[in-house]
UniProtKB/TrEMBL annotation:
Location in or out of the cell: Secreted
Cross-referenced Pfam families: Serpin
Disordered: annotated span: 432-492
GO molecular function: protease binding; protein homodimerization activity; serine-type endopeptidase inhibitor activity
Keyword annotations: Glycoprotein, Secreted, Signal
GO biological process terms on file: blood vessel morphogenesis; collagen fibril organization; maintenance of blood vessel diameter homeostasis by renin-angiotensin; negative regulation of fibrinolysis; negative regulation of plasminogen activation; positive regulation of cell differentiation; positive regulation of collagen biosynthetic process; positive regulation of ERK1 and ERK2 cascade
Regions of compositional bias (Basic and acidic residues) in chain numbering: 443-457
Main location: secreted
Gene that specifies this protein: SERPINF2
Protein name: Serpin family F member 2
Source taxon at top rank: Eukaryota
InterPro entries reported for this sequence: Alpha2AP_serpin_dom, Serpin_CS, Serpin_dom, Serpin_fam, Serpin_sf, Serpin_sf_1, Serpin_sf_2
One Gene Ontology cellular component annotation held by this UniProt entry: cell surface
Stretches assigned to the Serpin domain: 92-437
Amino acid sequence: MALLLRGLLLLGLSCLQGPCLVFSAASAMEPLDQQLMSGPAQEKLPPLILLKLGNQEPSGHFALKKAPRDCKGAPTPEETRKLAQAMMAFTTDLFSLVAQRGTSPNLILSPLSVALALSHLALGAQNQTLQKLLQVLHADSGPCLPHLLSHLCQDLGPGAFRLAARMYLQKGFPIKEDFLEQSEQLFGAKPVSLTGRKRDDLVNINQWVKEATEGKIEDFLSELPDDTVLLLLNAIHFQGFWRSKFDPSLTQRDSFHLNEEFTVPVDMMQARTYPLRWFLLEQPEIQVAHFPFKNNMSFVVIMPTHFEWNVSQVLANLSWDILHQPLLREKPTKVQLPKLHLKYQLDLVATLSQLGLQELFQAPDLRGISDQSLLVSSVQHQSTLELSEAGVEAAAATGTAMSRMSLSSFIVNRPFVFFILEDTTSMPLFVGSVRNPNPSAQWERKEQQDSPDDRDSFLNQKAFPRGDKPFGPDLKLAPPSEEDYPQPNSPK
């Protein structure tokens, strides 16, 4: 398979595909910073999101004008467009903060998974808690957001994209029937009763996670709190097959430029005539390429032509309108792309608090779930990605057409950001960044002429103009002509 992605999220409230939460009942609340285990460097995920009983009285008088049960029918094209734009805005907000806090050279998460978990939470949220959730998700759809997201996910990449959800409940804890019904209807989160025997429950939960992620995530929980009330598990599985296969015999060891001074060796996949949709943003200089999967998905590489960048800067220059380029035509391109194996896990409490959801972890109004006061104590997320050569052979007609066209090249040999997008809507399923695809390898100092940022050497080579700046072979880029590609405008 060309691409394997697994996402798991724990969110305290219900069990969604990707995210997971655990709610716990407690007579007295401990300080939140003592309850949480954070940090991506842990080998095992800490406990799931905990929902605890609290004694805070919710405030505010915001009520739903339309109940989720009244949201019916498939989303209109306009609703789908607005939802995709909102998801991209949420993805930018979320991943920018995750990247600021992250210490790993490579990051990956599923914003769709997190959004599903939060929208599941919105089913039982009221007043200011609901308002904050909708605000963070950039949702204009109000109470119909869970319905719209659920319906859209059902149509994503049939055969390649799978969502699995499960809800574990403490025996006898009063969860409102309406919340249970909508959780199963919209998210497929079927309620399962905990036995009360911690060892047996832990084995059963970890076994379900392992099966839902096809063995890619094992021993997700190291322990189960004594006072667990509600555990929401969500797993995302995306298996992407390249529409045009990479030939394994062409894969060879090559250099990946970490910065202007050092490289690491990587296994670089190659193709001489790859059907690629790509373009160049001039301000700043960023190369964007869509590597097509079967099932209407794409692996989108966003690669700055310089090293002095951070994720926030790159994402600030991107938007749904820029990445959504349905008229962009494929062009036969010489391609090099590193093989990847990424795994990342983190606790999202601090990040979600920075986004404005502090109330979830202090005194949320979740009376749509239970009349007893609850709060979210942890939000755990884990994703993995495997990128390799195999895929589905491209149609013969495509190869014939490509043989008549001039070739350019797109070489992914430097740090980049990536998305997994659904092509029709440009809905972001996964987002990540790669600064070192081989972190265990020893860094190698490179010769000056090997640096992609060596301006003196490339100015002496045969270069071509792009606006008022030349680009030469050392940048490994030959942008398509204007007649081949419509040039999108850089955001202001």
